[in-house]
Amino acid sequence: MTLLRRSNRLAILVASAVGLLIAPVLPQSQAMPRTPAPSTEAALPVVQVQQSKKPKSEFWRKKVRLQTSEKPGTIIIDTNTKYLYYVEGNNRATRYGVGVGRDGFGWSGTVNVGRKAEWPDWRPPASMIARERKKGRILPAHMKGGPDNPLGARALYLYKGGRDTIFRIHGTNQPWTIGQNMSSGCIRMMNEDVKHLYNRAGVGSKVIVIGPRGRGAEKLYSDRGMDFFGTLFGG
């Protein structure tokens, strides 16, 4: 009996070994799940990756070939295409992406830069304060200039006939709004762009604003596309 038992055990071991050798290998997707080993990742803080705060590349600052009869130093703002042009002459201009007035807040006309300010204070008009209060948002009567200020790093105040229009060309602490209809009529620029324009456009500069539907734009200027070498080596 002892010999028989040993023979049976040997036969079972051999059969098991052969079975392992001839068993099909399962693809990874069909393999039996394994219990994951303990990991230290669960103890690490979860960091959410924020979307880029830069606007689309089409609204980045570029040198362009621009045909216009306007004199160098003139600012042309097309609220339909969301571009601001600083005319340089010789059929060239610097083009900046801008944010413009939302529905009901668009406008057009010819104005001038009446004054300029670095890191300007913000004093929202009474009409804006009342309008936002109805939405449940309380605006301050005055906010000191700084990184959190809605006017951003620089402001060019637009005047008509020597009087403040209440519209500005200014920076923003919300650069992702560039290329969109978001403001109450002011022209928003990225802070680095409004600084660039601020250093070039003086008080008294002519500013032409084309309305939301772009009427008359074709008679005023023609954007012929990027000036590659001007963008590469220009200021």
How does this structure look, described?
The protein has a ten-stranded mixed β-sheet with strand order 10-8-7-6-11-2-3-4-1-12. Strands 5-9 form a two-stranded parallel ribbon. It is 20% helix and 29% strand. The protein has a single domain, classed as L,D-transpeptidase catalytic domain-like (Beta Barrel), CATH 2.40.440.10. It is an alpha+beta fold and 235 residues long.
List the helices and strands and how they pair.
Elements: H1 2-22, E1 62-68, E2 75-78, E3 83-89, E4 92-97, E5 100-101, E6 109-118, H2 126-134, E7 154-160, E8 163-170, E9 181-183, E10 187-188, H3 191-198, E11 206-210, H4 217-220, E12 221-226, H5 228-233
Parallel strand pairs: 2-11, 5-9, 8-10
Antiparallel strand pairs: 1-4, 1-12, 2-3, 3-4, 6-7, 6-11, 7-8
| Content-based structural category | alpha+beta
- Shape assignment: globular
Q: Sheet with the most strands?
A: 10 strands, mixed
Beta-strand percent range: 25-35%
CATH architecture classification: Beta Barrel
Give the domain tally.
Answer: 1
Mean pLDDT: 82
What is the first-to-last residue Cα distance? Answer: 101 Å
Rg over C-alpha atoms, rounded to the nearest angstrom: 33 Å
What helical percentage do the residues reach?
10-25%
The strand count comes to 12
CATH class: Mainly Beta
* CATH topology heading: L,D-transpeptidase catalytic domain-like
Strand order of the largest sheet: 10-8-7-6-11-2-3-4-1-12
What order do the SSEs take from the amino end to the carboxyl end, as H and E? HEEEEEEHEEEEHEHEH
Number of DSSP helices?
A: 5
What are the low-pLDDT stretches, counting only 5+ consecutive residues below 50?
A: 1-7, 10-51
CATH superfamily: L,D-transpeptidase catalytic domain-like
